[in-house]
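B., you asked whether I could sanity-check this one before it goes into the benchmark set. Here's the sequence:
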Amino acid sequence: MVSQPIIILRKKKISQIRQKNEKSDTDFIVDFFVPFFSKAQDTLRLGFEEYMEWVRLYHPVSAQADLNLRLGQMELRQARGAFDPLIYGNLDRKEFKETTYYNKRDLGMKIPTGMGVELNGNFEQNAGTYLNPEGTVPSAGLLSAGASVNLGQGLILDERRAALRQAQIFQESSEVERIRLLNQLNLDATDMYWRWALAFENLKVLQEGVELASSRFNYVKSSFEQGDLAAIDTVEAFSQLLNRQYRLQSAENTFFCYNTGTEYLPVG
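And here's what the prediction gave me:
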């Protein structure tokens, strides 16, 4: 089992070491977590599960996916609001020189339905000396109820039902888009972490290799001084030490790049 990598923290700001304007999704993952690391101590061991939890909770792409879903839900709620019952009322009164010209009261309710039928009810009570004859109703008031249906345009699908259906489709698409964004984020974050882990493990192996090559060189050098080995053997041992030191330096550069969010170097 591969051990968890140790994050080496650097105080240098990422803006000072990164010159490109365009970033890939994987670059953005590294850039996002560097500020977290810079606030910690010199070293920090970050496990894969904790790393992915940070991605899920704090990464901007994760927040964007949730916002897209909420936007779809709000669109659907707004469209459903067009089918909310509507209660209305009206009071119209005129008096002049202690004479009531008219006193009209109107109270009603409209209930839209998803079938394109609108139910309505109305209570009307009017009085007055100069009331328009068309507004004459019984003194106790007039109660009416009915339903309205569009027989022409809008019978099958009116504007209100079309807006609702459009909002439902938008919500479904926002859910699919959220899943797509999160899947891509998890894929990039996982790839970034294990590249990082590979760079760390490779660094440890090469450090051990340099120590072994250094010990062998010292042994060969000591044997040459005692006359047990030829001079060419020290050249071979020293060349091997230089080669491993060079590979270690390349591995250190690669690991440093993963920690700071700069351009990636091949792990070798």
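One thing to flag: Strands lie at 6-8, 43-45, 86-96, 99-112, 117-127, 142-149. Otherwise nothing jumped out at me.
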